[in-house]
């Protein structure tokens, strides 16, 4: 499915957050959305997922503007993995992943064999089969993140939007997830902070700066030392790493933050531990 935005703008409280964003993600493409903190990545993804109504401009799926689409119709096309998605804590992992089937359910049919098979496949894809009966609240941050991605896959969407999906994942799971996104036939737009991983796994990068799209192209064309200095304020070199992947290596920030002294610790004598305080246990 093709995702297109034209002249997209979003403002809040009189402040422009996105300005004149135009993008076109082709069917099956894996596109990375990069930009510094506060540049507008989450806001843009929310507009593309139909969760935020643009102040002006339009979002289209396969050239059809989604302005008048219902949330259910959008969810049958696009899955969105938000940065800090919260989920009802009484559910089991399989139930959370099963929420991905909601757009396809109806109260007469219920949750059928096909839904169960799709959920099982999504759990397996994210290495969560062994955790399927685990209460949601007993999961680690990375396991929850993988479960949210499994829920998105269970939605069987034509396109997946992901907002920093690797931020809680260990290295192995980061590589597995990005490999999965790069290999899928679905259209993928993924916000990432790790620029070398973005370069390695994405066909193309979109660079946001202060709510404007300032570069759009193959990773090596977007991640130039000049743009990295201007937009991310880092002094960096780019080129092949030891394995030949295009990578970014940082010398440091362009300008060091002002080196003011931190307040010194209080010179007051600390109060002694109470005599009966328990000895800390080794863990
Ligand atoms: N509802 C809102 N009200 C006020 N300001 C908002 C709102 N939503 C977003 N913003 C502001 O818009 C700007 C862009 O936010 P956004 O979350 O889209 O950035 P981001 O690129 O995803 O950042 P990060 O990398 O830190 O996740 C920020 O300055 C943010 O404070």
Automatic annotation (TrEMBL):
Protein's organism: Streptomyces flavofungini
Residues covered by region (Disordered): 254-283
Protein name from the UniProt record: ABC transporter ATP-binding protein
Domain ABC transporter, chain residue ranges per copy: 3-235
Pfam families, sorted: ABC_tran (PF00005)
One GO MF term: ATP binding
Biased composition (Pro residues): 255-264
Entry keywords, A to Z: ATP-binding, Nucleotide-binding
Domain of life: Bacteria
